[in-house]
């Protein structure tokens, strides 16, 4: 069974800037604390990452997975889904970018299903770490 979460932040930057930072996945290890390594395996005609391998800190260990990105709603949103993972059965996510005056409301939607069930308190801790990525995106966009 997949676990889902939604979080929003208002970021003092344009939607275009937020979109650019969110799609520059090669730089994630510089600002997304849990992302340790990124390898882009495929890009689209606009040079945006389409198939990306990640190595992240997860639940006290290292986890590796690959995501396929969908830009069909760009620049209003980007979404992704899991193509392969070592402890994940499914990952579906999306960033939505909505103009809010001089800022941008960014909504982060995420659904994850792990191969092995884990206790609820560990899931909640992991969910908090994952959603913290949105706060890290905010800091990066505003810096």
What report would you give on this structure?
Helix content is 25%, strand content 50%. Helix 1 (15-23) packs across helix 3 (120-142). It is built from 3 helices and 7 strands; from the N terminus they run E-H-H-E-E-E-E-E-E-H. The chain has a single domain, classed as 2-Layer Sandwich (Alpha-D-Glucose-1,6-Bisphosphate, Chain A, domain 4), CATH 3.30.530. By secondary structure, it is α+β, with helices and mostly antiparallel strands. A hairpin with a 5-residue loop joins strand 2 and strand 3. The longest helix has 23 residues, at 120-142. Strands 1-7-6-5-4-3-2 form a 7-stranded antiparallel sheet. The protein has helices at residues 15-23, 28-31, 120-142; strands spanning 3-11, 35-43, 49-58, 61-70, 77-85, 88-100, 103-114. The model has no long low-confidence stretch (mean pLDDT 90).
Estimated helix fraction: 25-40%
Strand order of the largest sheet: 1-7-6-5-4-3-2
Helical segment tally?
A: 3
Report the sheet-strand fraction: over 45%
Instruction: Return the string of H and E elements.
Output: EHHEEEEEEH
User: What characteristic shape results from the CA principal axes?
Assistant: globular
Number of domains: 1
Write out the CATH superfamily name.
Answer: START domain
Write down the CATH topology. Alpha-D-Glucose-1,6-Bisphosphate, Chain A, domain 4
Which class do the helix and strand fractions yield?
A: alpha+beta
CATH architecture: 2-Layer Sandwich
Low-confidence stretches: none
CATH class designation: Alpha Beta
Main sheet record: 7 strands, antiparallel
Report how far apart the termini are: 38 Å
- Kindly provide the radius of gyration, computed on alpha-carbon positions and rounded to a whole number of angstroms: 15 Å
Number of strands: 7
Average the pLDDT over all residues and give the rounded result: 90
């Amino acid at each position: 069974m997949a676990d889902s979460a939604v979080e929003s932040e208002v970021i003092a930057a344009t939607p275009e800037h937020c979109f650019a930072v969110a799609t520059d996945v090669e730089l994630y290890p510089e600002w997304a604390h849990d992302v340790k390594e990124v390898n882009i395996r495929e890009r689209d005609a606009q040079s945006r990452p389409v198939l990306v391998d990640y190595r992240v800190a997860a639940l006290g260990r290292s986890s590796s997975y690959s995501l396929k990105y969908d830009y069909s709603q760009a620049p209003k949103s980007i979404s992704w889904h899991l193509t392969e993972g070592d402890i994940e059965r499914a990952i579906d996510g999306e960033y939505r970018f909505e103009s809010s005056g001089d800022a941008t409301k960014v909504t982060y939607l995420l659904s994850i299903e792990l191969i092995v069930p884990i206790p609820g308190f560990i899931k909640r801790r992991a969910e908090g770490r994952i959603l913290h990525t949105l706060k890290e995106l905010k800091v990066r966009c505003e810096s």
